[in-house]
Every structure is written in C-alpha cells, then in structure tokens.
Amino acid sequence: SSQQALEQARAVAEELEDLKAVAKGLEEENSELRRQARQLVRGPASSLPQNQQLLAECHGLREQIQVLAAEMADLEVRGGSRAAWPMPSASL
C-alpha cells in the first residue's frame, strides 16, 4: 500500500510540474499578446478589430491562468495532505 501511495504521489507531482509548464507558457503568450495590444492601441484606427480580438484572447488567457493556478493549488494541497507519504525527489 505504501508503494501505491508513492506512485500516486509521483503522479501528482508530475501533473503539478506539467501544469506549471502550461501556466508558464500561457503567461508568456499573455505577455506577448499584451505587447501586441499596446502596439495596436498606438496604431491606426483600422486596427481596432484586431485590437479587440487580441484583448479578448488576453482575457481568455488570463482566465486559463487562473484555472491552472487553482488546479496547481489543489494539487499542492492534495500532495501536502498526504504528509505521511514520502514525496518523490527530483532525482526519481
């Protein structure tokens, strides 16, 4: 049973790392979209539809980041609540 608990802890740790990587990618994409949106705001009025699209994408990314952050917090809590289980190390 402790072997099974260890495997579950490893799976949760891997899932957490995957979510962190996805969140980082979304944050980078969000930053790029914000940069593009700032440039478009300074551009001609004909870029307004594209600007609105970028702002909508930015909003969607922000929501995805919040969802991922909540999932990561949940995984950390679930992993932390199993304090009796040995947590996998980075070398495993």
UniProtKB/TrEMBL annotation:
Any coiled-coil regions, as ranges: 2-78
Alphabetic keyword roster: Coiled coil
SUPFAM superfamilies in UniProt: Mitotic arrest deficient-like 1, Mad1
Name of the protein described by the UniProt record: Protein KASH5
Organism classification: Eukaryota, Metazoa, Chordata, Craniata, Vertebrata
Underlying gene: CCDC155
